[in-house]
Amino acid sequence: MNQEKLLAIASQFALEGEIETIKPLGEGFINDTFTVVTVGDAPNYILQRKNHIVFPDVPGMMDNILAVTNHIKAKVADPMRETLTVVPAKDGKLYVQDGENYWAVCVFIADTASYDRADSVELAYQGGVGIGRFQALLADFDKPLNETIKGFHNIRWRFQQWDETIAKDPVGRVAEVQEEIGWVEARRKEMLDFWSLVEDGTIPTHVTHNDTKISNILFDKPTGKVLCAIDLDTVMSSTSLNDFGDAIRSYTNTGAEDDKNLDNVEMSIDMFRAYAEGYLSEQRASMTQSELDWLAFAGRYITFEQVLRFLMDYIDGDNYYKTAYADHNLVRTHAQYKLLQSMERQYDEMCAIVKSLS
pLDDT tens-digit profile of 9-59? Predict the structure, then answer.
């Protein structure tokens, strides 16, 4: 998108200072993100085009983000740095709509560091602290949140989508992935049995981030300590185990999420231990026994879900995730399945670690 168009959009928000330039920031799977640089001492900002296909209720999503960040701001010492600050549009809305596109702005938090992957046990521990603290700060949040993505991390809903996609076979790929479909089907009952415990309240629900990879934690550059969780688009109500499981999926993988060399992919038990220790140091007091009993399984659950979702998107013609080449989603499927197998082999040790920490 050209600079003139971006300036026209950014100028509709209640920004301080004059805009100097707008430049791309990162390469997200879902949204397009830009840094708005201002003149002088005014703060800089993050401008983001929200993907309305993935997030069909952007207004509801922004309401969630504002409610959660306001709750955190009331509890922390430095509210402008320890959570995101949403900047409204000049008309008072939390977004600007440009045709079918939605845009939102938050204040850029300066003097911070972020990481694309956790490459040390120390960083994994700090990431666990970050999500554990995020959940602990919101443990008493009692307002309803909008379900901005239907059935997110709900494996019963995912299987409904899965069955419909397999039946339609819209681009004729089902025949070539019969082995991979078998991987999913072999674990259907186990995953649905787990989710039944969430549905019947045995495992309680809370405010959850739902996308807890290391790149969604900001670190304070001067101290190196966790500052806050960012990228709150997926904040909704679900089991806190989803956040733990999603982090384990991304932190412990010794390879890349889309690694073509499956020999690289394994779950690091040392990274699991470090993340669990950091997470429980903040969140243990808020957890029920049922949550602790199923905490280690959450890594398997979320990794399985990602196997299903990557494969389903491949079968559907690659409509959800951004892809860099023709079989990118299939490569992701294979890498995630290798990670899942590694977790299954080490599951007893994962359970023992959680028990020792809790």
Answer: 999 999 999 999 999 886 655 678 999 999 999 999 999 998 887 788 999
Query: Token digits for 262?
Result: 């499956």
> Closest Cα to residue 282, out of 213, 225, 204, 347?
225
- Strand pairing category for 96-98 and 32-38: unpaired
The answer to whether the beta carbons of residues 89 and 95 sit under 8 Å apart is yes
Q: How far, in Å, CA of 182 to CA of 308, rounded?
A: 11
pLDDT band (50, 70, 90) for residue 322: confident
User: Cα–Cα distance between 306 and 248 in angstroms, integer?
Assistant: 12
Q: Which residue type occupies 120?
A: S
Whole-number pLDDT of residue 282: 97
Are residues 350 and 268 in contact, defined by beta-carbon separation less than 8 angstroms? no
Per-chain mean pLDDT for the chain:
95
Picking from 333, 329, 330, 328, the residue whose alpha carbon sits closest to that of residue 307 is 333
For residue 355 the two structure tokens come to 């028990």
State residue 146 phi and psi, 5-degree precision. Answer: -75, 140
Beta strands in the chain (DSSP E): 19-24, 32-38, 45-50, 86-87, 96-98, 101-107, 112-113, 206-208, 217-220, 226-229, 236-238
How far apart are alpha carbons 345 and 256 in whole angstroms? 19
Query: Is-contact 138 206, C-beta < 8 A?
Result: yes
Amino acid at 6: L
